[in-house]
Amino acid sequence: MRGMHARRRRKWKTEMKKYKQRREQQRKSPKGLKPYINYVLQRPTQKEKPWVLMNETKEGGTKVIDTRETVEKAEREFTETHMGKGRRRWYIQQGELIRPFKKREGKGRRKRLQTGKMTPTDWKYIPKKLRYIYKQARAAYNNKGERMEGRMYGNIFTAAITRGEMDAYLARMRKSTAPGVSGIRIDHVAALPEEMRELIALAISLPYITGMGYAMWEEEIVSWVPKEEDNMDIGKRIPLMYYEVLRTD
Length: 249
Hints:
Number of helices: 10
Strand content: 5-15%
Order of helices and strands: HHEEHEEHHHHHHEEH
Structural class: mainly alpha
Radius of gyration: 27 Å
Strand order of the largest sheet: 1-2
Helix content: 40-55%
């Protein structure tokens, strides 16, 4: 009898060891991490992305897009249109920015816009229907009702970010959000040891100090989410943008 119970215990321990190893492998796998977290936190699983879309044609009909390749092609075209492909930009003429918008002259013009000192020549280049929008670019008021000036900001745009400032930011940010191209999430940064967070603070300080950024931070992911559940119309979706979390820091 004792031998039978001992065999059962050994078998149970062996099965539990295998189960633990599978869970550990799933935890370490990028593809298995999200299902693992959903399992631990008892979250409802998200539906898989549909690979069938409907798109209205110019003739008024409806086209069915039902292969992975055509869906991805349609999404790329839809994203390009959404981001402005083919739109006429009034500030670009013959492939170049108009003179008042060029870097050398643009800085002074932006300063005049901020301080409310735009000249008639400045306004001449801006279409009338956009002038109201440009006027909203005046410097904001502070809590004392004073119009903000450059000197009031001190060095907040040029000083290095301290680890304490970064930790305070991380503490109030939502965790477990979708990552950017690198796969790094806010909770990854927050879980790092103190010396690593110190290095992260130095890394994200460089753009403030030097005015230069990192090429990888410019990469973004666009994911189109249905406005209505089970609605396959490609025009009935909204874009979600995924940025690098260190860029948002």
